[in-house]
Amino acid sequence: MARILLHTCCAPCSIHPIDQLRAQGHEITSFFYNPNIHPFTEHLRRKETLIQYAKMIDLPVIDAEKYDFEEYLRRVAHRVDTRCGVCYEMRLRETARAAKEKGFEAFSTTLLVSPYQKHDMVREAAETVSREYGVPFIYQDWRGGFRAGQVRAKELGLYRQPYCGCIYSEAERYRARPPKSLFRP
After folding, report:
1. Least confident range of 38-47, 98-107, 124-133
2. Is the overall model pTM greater than 0.70, yes or no?
3. 172: CB partners within 8 A, 6+ apart
């Protein structure tokens, strides 16, 4: 059993990983640091939903209490094709730093549950910062539980977002299926 700091992108994506880690006997604390989420109101909504869910399941949450959106944009602006790796590294670096500072035995991330994330890039970024900070990274492929977690989130009435969170994925969502009208007469 280990004390694990779990980087959490949102409540729905945390359901399956938390269930799995707890079933393995680990003590989990959620860590919310997501400077990529845009707009700020979406960032707040995801954080509030995580806090709501955490109360339901008696899960401690550490909020990084910062929104480094401008820094995120500076890092990805000229790297549009590789932005996901930059984003993963930024979030997981902060998680590993917090894990070391707060005495956790390991860290992981709920990004590993989503079939929409670049799984190998997440793992590579996590392993890199793990070596740098000397905090073990717990790797598990939770993608098989993604749909069940989403169903459970719906049953619990949790907010489920329609895009990964970044400004680029929001644009891609609308390019794929443009709305009939954003403005109603």
Report:
1. 38-47
2. yes
3. 163
